[in-house]
Amino acid sequence: MPCHRYDQPTSRRDFLQSAGCGFGAVALAALMNENNAAAATLAHRAAKAKHVIFLFMEGGPSHLDTFDYKPLLNKLAGQSLPASFKPPITAMGETKSPLLECKRTWKQYGQGGLWVSDWFTNVAQHADDLAVIHSCASSGINHAGGVCSMNTGSVFGGRPSLGAWAQYGLGSENRNLPGFVVIKDSEATVVNGARNWGNGFMPAVYQGVEFASDGTPIKYLDNPKGVDRKRQRDKLDLLGALNRDYNATRQSNTELDARIKGYELAYQMQAEAPEAVDLSKETEATKALYGMDDEKTAVYGRNCLLARRLIENGVRFVQLYSGAGSKWDSHKGIEVNHSKLCNAVDKPIAGLLTDLKSRGLLEETLVIWGGEFGRTPMSEQGDGRDHNPTGFTMWMAGGGVKGGQTYGMTDELGLYAVEDRLHVHSIHATLLYLLGIDHTKLTYNHKGLPERIDQNEGKPYTKLLV
Fold this sequence. Notes:
This protein is an alpha/beta fold. The protein folds into two domains: about 10-40 and about 235-275, no CATH class; about 45-220 and about 275-465, Alkaline Phosphatase, subunit A (3-Layer(aba) Sandwich). It contains twelve helices and 17 strands. The strands form five sheets. Strands 1, 4, 5, 6, 7, 8, 11, 12 and 15 form a nine-stranded mixed β-sheet that branches. Strands 2-3 form a two-stranded antiparallel sheet. Strands 9-10 form a two-stranded antiparallel ribbon. The longest helix is centred in the last third of the chain and has 25 residues, at about 335-360. The protein starts with 11 loop residues before the first helix and ends in a 15-residue tail after the last strand.
């Protein structure tokens, strides 16, 4: 016997709160469709970048051995840091460590003559597309604070991630796929875990969705045996009705609201996602371009190719972790550590840039490379380098940046940013600016205060714009 419940509203507030259940379907469509209303109100300038692929090297890659050539470092190798340099505070606390030479071979590439080491010879072929920023800085001296800072702008957890802000500001272009996707290169846990792609104080619908690093990228995508699409739709409708009824008097609980939307998105993904993540449709030549035919590069190559397919299908922000579990950390044995990791990502990243460019996607896709910090010029444990958040390198390509040039500068030993210092807050402001968003106007009211991604401390670095 059907049960119909009707609660007589006692006030205008009660009526609107109850009616919110019915409005939920309308709100869901608005939140998830490809023309999110936020995009119309928060896109403040015409921009080339529509998508972001963030290549995150977790653990802190050494700028001194990859993209920031410092000849003086080898001339002074084995000596103490010159007295003219302020001694840095190091994560591991070693003092008076001698300078460690860079054993790499360096060459200049492209019309701009960018210096790149032999650890990234494939990426170097795209020198004229790279905007190499040598003056990055962070407040995080350890991995927990550094990764959190690079992802959220704060060394402390609890704030929305960069991808969540992009999703909040511009919405998704595809109602059948998440707007923010995260893919790791192993089952290892990134330091801080899911908080790196979390929604913080925003509604949970803006958080990133983690895809698997091997096998089927999206778990549980297929219906259980014997359950057809109509039956699945009926189950979802019933579950949605129950959840909305329960949520009607608990509007402050965004987790339940996100779960309702998550179930709906999962149903929609069953129709479109299988084709979007089906790499079997790619040619063998394309797979080889990404290094999928080589065991050393296959994993990151697969992830880079999947990222290209996702942005082709309207995903706004894709973050690819290399070295999940802080494997780029190299307090000892940097030669062995970085050789293995650079070899695993160099060809896949170059393949991604080549593929995006050949398809006309690089102009509208901002590709970012970097980690949570760099490494020190001083040695640690004899053959490693400590954390360096005071001056390190990141690069951007596509999405409206002027390639073939370096921006900013570290000192002669690569320890401190000394020209055009870009703190993480300004890096975030720059990224949003490239997406067409004025970060000072992209605010979210939390506990009565208008919150911004940069915590009122950053500004876009417009020098690198085309």
